[in-house]
Structure formats: C-alpha cells, structure tokens
Amino acid sequence: QVQLVESGGGLVQAGGSLRLSCTASGRTFSNYAMGWFRQAPGKEREFVAAISWPSGRSTSYADSVKGRFTISRDNAKNTVYLQMNSLKPEDTAVYYCAADTPRTKSIITTEYEYEYWGQGTQVTVSS
Q: What span, in angstroms and rounded, lies between the C-alpha atoms of 13 and 85?
C-alpha cells in the first residue's frame, strides 16, 4: 500500500504559475505509474496528466492543459510534480494525485485504473 500527500496548491492570478507536489510513502515509488486528476465544483473528476513508471520516460496530458502543464517525477524523493503555467480561471479545482502498479501498461490515463489517491489540494485561479 502507498500513501500520497499533495501540496503546493493555493490562490494565483490568471497567467500565473504553481507547482504541485505529491509525495508517496509505503513502497518502492519507482514501481508506480503516477497521475494527476482534478475536480471542479459541480463537475466530475477529470484526467490532467500522467507519467510512466519506472523512469517517467512517457507522459500524457489532457488537451486542455497541453503546452501549459508539465508532469515529472523524482524517484529519489518519492515525489511527482505538476508544474502549471499560464493558469486560467477554468483550471480552478481540487487536484488529486494518484498511483498504481500496472501489470501491462507503463502509463495510466483512466481514473478507474488507479488504486491509490491523495486527499487533494485546492488550486484557485482568479481572473
């Protein structure tokens, strides 16, 4: 089992940047495919970005964040990051980190395939 703790959320003006961190504990971090999802008020949780295991060679992004967000991982620090640039008010949401040990895939982009979730961190972008 792995425990995930997100940090780095906050209030930022449109056009600004934030970097979210998700630190894992419990087992070998490099064995986990990692992802970020978000949920805005009144909406379903949606995929944001994912990174492959063990090295993070592959990444995937939602169309809405391509070119603005970057996912990365530091296995030595048991941490995955989400660098968010050029933030827009529509990026306002609770951001969740997710982890799983896939059997056949190196990267996971679908919510239901992730077993472990963090508690979420609020990101608010003002216009």
A: 11
**What is the Cα–Cα distance from 33 to 24, expressed in whole angstroms?**
12
- The answer to whether 114 and 98 have CB atoms below 8 angstroms apart is yes
The SS3 call for residue 111 is helix
Q: What is the DSSP code (8-state) at residue 55?
A: S
Write the burial class of residue 29 (CB in 10 Å: 0-12 exposed, 13-18 middle, 19+ buried).
buried
Q: How far does CA 47 lie from the centroid of its chain?
A: 9
Tens of each residue's pLDDT in the chain, 127 residues: 899 999 999 999 999 999 999 999 977 898 999 999 999 999 999 999 999 999 999 999 999 999 999 999 999 999 999 999 999 999 999 999 999 998 788 999 999 999 999 999 999 999 9
Three-state DSSP class for residue 52: coil
Distance of alpha carbon 109 from alpha carbon 113, whole angstroms: 8
Q: 3-class SS at 29?
A: helix
Separation between Cα atoms, residue 1 and residue 106, nearest integer Å: 19
